[in-house]
Design brief:
Length: 108
C-alpha cells in the first residue's frame, strides 16, 4: 500500500484490478482466482470479496475488528479511469446483519 503513494488526507480508495479487465463481475460462474488482498492490506475492490480467496476469514476479521475501514465489495468499475472521485454509498438497512446490499454512486 505504501508504494502507491496515496496522498495524505485521502480517506477512500477504490482499487480497479485485473478483476475488471477479466470481466469477472459479468461471469455467471464464481472465479476463485480473483485479485484480492491478504490480511496485511485493506481497501475496496472490484469483485465479490476484498480478501483473496485463500485468506478470506483473517482479512475480514481484521476489518470487522478495526471498524475504521468500511468494506465495499462487488464494485463494477467498467469504464472508470484512474483519478479523483467522490463516492457515495447508500446501504440498505438490515437489522442484525454485518453487511448489506449498497447502491454506490461515483461522481467526478
Amino acid at each position: 500500500m505504501k508504494s502507491l503513494k496515496i496522498p495524505r488526507g485521502v480517506h477512500r480508495v477504490l482499487f480497479k484490478t485485473l478483476n475488471t479487465d477479466r470481466r469477472l463481475m459479468h461471469r455467471k460462474k464464481f472465479a476463485s482466482d480473483f485479485t484480492g488482498l491478504k490480511k496485511d492490506g485493506h481497501s475496496g475492490l472490484d469483485y465479490l470479496s476484498v480478501s483473496a480467496y485463500d485468506d478470506a476469514a483473517p482479512t475480514h476479521h481484521i476489518f470487522l475488528r478495526n471498524r475504521e475501514i468500511v468494506l465495499v465489495e462487488g464494485l463494477n468499475l467498467d469504464g472508470i479511469k484512474p483519478g479523483k472521485y467522490t463516492v457515495h454509498c447508500l446501504p440498505t438497512r438490515m437489522v442484525g446483519a454485518d453487511g448489506c446490499p449498497t447502491r454506490c454512486i461515483l461522481t467526478a
